Design the sequence.
């Protein structure tokens, strides 16, 4: 399995064919749309996409239109992993009976944080435990965006959402962001990775790996996909914000392959979290003390991840 | 499925079974140019064909075209990136990300 | 046609047929094996567990070439069935009560997506309070979901109806998920002699086909998009239309089944209805009690007949009209409550009679709720009631709860 290569070295290696047509009702500057555009490009034509209810599904599949050039099945909010399990098993059995003549069809789930981290969590755990040969891509815009920016388990601490309002008595989400990657790793998938929409080369390679590895078992890619509408920033800054997430240590680009976890985007000198938080309206209510707490949290996470990977992959504050 | 210009919508027996959409990628028929306040314009002379704008456009509205181009300074490129203005929503990610600032945000005429 | 006749002769000579002592649950498992199902995704729940256990054994022994997805909940069970069916596989699942309730988010999706999933519903009472025992409360919650619902009264019927269900569901003009319901414990766990057929013979009856909207990377389509108010009505109406069309398909399949397997099934079983003045209506395992009570009543000279529903959805309207136009009264024994209304099947029948301007007075009764033990004398009491209604010419205004402790002594 370690002989799976790097697929794309430069931008010129990236595939040209588009598999997610434009014209959807996604917001301008939509991070999830960019993520899905690349996932579908990299997966190749012989794939079945399973989506869960959420922003991406909601904007790309409104009858009688669909942006998807792959066969795409959507069932409900919390059952994308189960549906994918069913599709994958059907293809397996039909192949065995000589009744599947489309060849080596991959099954890829593209679902949001609401569907993955909250309502579909049990189903995801089941799919991973049963070792289904499915590549699962989670686009994380850190809230239930399609229903109007309500908080999810993946919403970061102190963020404003419509259900974690800034008021006289309470300010924002009080709980930290759910560490879904650790939970996925505990299920021991074949391949796990995290990336952002600012690192498209990285994303393309990781998703391609995840899809190739999915011939052997479940794989998982966690993509940070900023949302201008929900995070309240100018829509042209989606890429900059995703970059800053990594550069401040609020997000790590990781890869778990062959039993080893490594940091794939090293940050020699870390920027202070204030640079990331100050660009987003959902954090505009933060006091200096709040920012200090978040900085401390990030410092601890950086220490932890450096210990786990065994090197100073994420450096100190600049 | 029929959605004609006169606003006449398909009847229940004209809709494909289970309401499946069997025209893959037909959102491309929808023109979203009306969303824009600013329109990105590529200065083809400044553009180094790095491909970053094409890579970062969420809509895929920047197209790689096999059109050779010679800049005024005499640099020859075998291909070009062009913006599909039917499908550009004017988010200006390309404007921000272009490493040589070859894309300008031009205000749309109202 | 001639090939089928030859095979029938071979079979009616008992060649390829075996008689096994099977419970209702095992009969369902044998039918799934005979049907060469591709994918089974189910979650265990009493009293359905023997079905999934027996299927697992068939797979482990290599007698059934299928995969069992051991899902982590019933919601996932039906979701996985939808995914597998969408990819073109023949799928089966089974559940009861709370499992069915957990599936409910996806039940309407299965019918809306027009997928021919077959599900055995081992009828069990709904919580609260918790009951593992059999009544049709769970089945009745499926009435308005677009599923075809058949009800089997004994283990042989379970075996036969599950086989029929695949042929009905996969019919190109139907393509609707189909449930075969039967009594928890009274049918599911009671061993009866069941004649099972040669698997290959069954497979010729239900050959596999590809549904037009199956997922295929060479013909991409999007399944289950969002439908705004301009589209939802029409797309959902397709389910109504398919359900209406399914009635004739069910009759045809039943007739073909009878010829092919030498059986005598009817959509509504009738007993002594030719000259009946009063009708006793049941479904499921209590059909046996009904017939015994009718025999006793007939011996006393009461001209009562019995009707047993093998099909709950679509409602067999023409048969209801036919059978109830010429009786003086009818009583429906529902093995489920109607909440804030009369019994569920009674309500369906009353609506049919109203639409066809048939004035036969009737009575709604319930019994067997939570598997309350039923006695023949209870059914004899029901017959006394229907006779009273017939002679007075007026329907009973209150639902009669047979077997309920504390139910009024005088009626």
Sequence:
């Amino acid at each position: 399995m370690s002989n799976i290569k790097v697929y794309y070295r430069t931008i010129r290696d990236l595939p040209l064919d588009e598999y997610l047509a434009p014209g959807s009702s996604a917001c301008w500057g939509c991070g999830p749309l960019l993520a899905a555009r690349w996932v579908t490009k990299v997966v190749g034509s012989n794939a079945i996409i399973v989506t869960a209810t959420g922003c991406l599904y909601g904007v790309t599949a409104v009858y009688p239109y669909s942006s998807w050039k792959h066969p795409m099945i959507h069932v409900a909010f919390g059952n994308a992993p189960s549906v994918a399990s069913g599709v994958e098993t059907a293809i397996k059995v039909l192949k065995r009976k000589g009744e599947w003549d489309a060849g080596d069809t991959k099954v890829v789930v593209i679902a949001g944080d609401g569907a993955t981290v909250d309502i579909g969590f049990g189903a995801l755990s089941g799919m991973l435990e049963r070792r289904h040969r499915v590549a699962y891509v989670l686009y994380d815009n850190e809230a239930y965006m399609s229903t109007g920016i309500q908080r999810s388990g993946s919403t970061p601490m102190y963020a404003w959402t419509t259900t974690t309002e800034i008021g006289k008595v309470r300010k924002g989400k009080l709980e930290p962001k759910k560490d879904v990657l650790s939970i996925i790793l505990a299920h021991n998938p074949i391949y796990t990775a995290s990336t952002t929409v600012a690192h498209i080369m990285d994303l393309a390679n990781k998703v391609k790996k995840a899809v190739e590895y999915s011939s052997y078992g479940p794989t998982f890619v966690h993509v940070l996909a900023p949302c201008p509408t929900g995070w309240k920033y100018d829509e042209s800054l989606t890429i900059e914000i995703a970059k800053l997430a990594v550069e401040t240590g609020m997000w790590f680009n990781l890869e778990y392959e062959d039993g080893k976890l490594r940091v794939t985007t090293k940050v020699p000198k870390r920027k202070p979290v204030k640079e990331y938080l100050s660009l987003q309206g959902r954090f505009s209510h933060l006091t200096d003390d709040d920012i200090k707490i978040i900085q401390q949290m990030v410092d601890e996470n950086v220490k932890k991840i450096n210990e786990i990977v065994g090197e100073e992959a994420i450096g100190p504050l600049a | 499925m029929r959605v004609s210009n006169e606003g006449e919508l398909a009847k229940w027996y004209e809709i494909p079974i289970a309401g499946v959409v069997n025209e893959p990628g037909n959102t491309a028929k929808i023109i979203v140019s009306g969303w824009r306040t600013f329109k990105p314009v590529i200065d083809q002379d400044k553009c180094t064909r790095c491909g970053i704008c094409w890579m970062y456009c969420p809509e895929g509205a920047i197209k790689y075209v096999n059109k050779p181009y010679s800049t005024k300074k005499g640099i020859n490129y075998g291909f070009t990136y062009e913006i599909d203005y039917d499908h550009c929503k004017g988010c200006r990610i390309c404007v921000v990300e272009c490493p040589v600032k070859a894309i300008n945000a031009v205000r749309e005429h109202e | 046609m001639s090939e089928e006749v030859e095979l029938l002769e071979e079979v009616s000579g008992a060649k390829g047929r075996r008689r096994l002592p099977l419970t209702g649950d095992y009969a369902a498992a044998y039918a799934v094996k005979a049907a060469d199902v591709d994918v089974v995704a189910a979650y265990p729940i009493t009293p359905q567990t023997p079905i999934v256990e027996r299927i697992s054994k068939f797979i482990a022994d290599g007698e059934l070439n299928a995969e069992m997805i051991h899902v982590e909940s019933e919601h996932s069970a039906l979701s996985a069935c939808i995914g597998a069916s969408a990819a073109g596989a023949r799928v089966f699942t089974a559940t009861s009560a709370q499992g069915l309730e957990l599936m409910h988010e996806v039940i309407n999706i299965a019918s809306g997506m027009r997928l021919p999933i077959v599900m055995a519903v081992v009828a069990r009472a709904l919580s609260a309070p918790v009951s593992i025992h059999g009544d049709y409360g769970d089945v009745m919650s499926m009435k308005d979901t677009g599923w075809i619902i058949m009800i089997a009264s004994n283990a042989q019927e379970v075996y036969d109806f599950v086989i029929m269900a695949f042929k009905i569901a996969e019919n190109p003009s139907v393509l609707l998920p189909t449930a075969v319901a039967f009594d928890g414990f009274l049918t599911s766990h009671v061993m009866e002699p069941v004649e099972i057929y040669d698997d290959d013979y069954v497979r010729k009856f239900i050959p596999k086909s590809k549904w037009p909207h199956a997922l295929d990377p060479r013909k991409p389509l999007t399944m289950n998009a969002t439908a705004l108010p301009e589209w939802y009505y029409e797309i959902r109406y397709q389910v109504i239309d398919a359900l209406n069309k399914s009635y004739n398909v069910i009759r045809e399949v039943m007739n073909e089944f009878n010829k092919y397997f030498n059986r005598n099934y009817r959509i509504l079983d009738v007993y002594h209805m030719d000259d009946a003045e009063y009708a006793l209506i049941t479904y499921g395992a209590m059909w046996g009690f009904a017939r015994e009570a009718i025999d006793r009543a007939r011996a006393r000279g009461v001209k009562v007949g019995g009707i047993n529903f093998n099909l709950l959805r679509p409602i067999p309207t023409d048969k209801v009209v036919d059978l109830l136009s010429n009786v003086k009264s009818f009583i429906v024994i529902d093995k489920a409550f109607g909440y804030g209304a009369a019994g569920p099947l009674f309500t369906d029948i009353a609506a049919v009679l109203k639409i066809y301007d048939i004035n036969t007075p009737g009575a709604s009764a319930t019994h067997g709720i939570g598997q309350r033990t039923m006695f023949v004398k209870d059914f004899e009491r029901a017959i006394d009631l229907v006779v009273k209604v017939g002679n007075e010419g007026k329907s009973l205004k209150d639902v009669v709860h047979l077997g309920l402790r504390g139910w009024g002594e005088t009626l």
Remarks:
- The CA atoms of residues 111 and 220 of chain A lie 11 Å apart.
- Chain A has one domain: 13-309.
- The first strand of chain A starts at residue 47 and ends at 51.
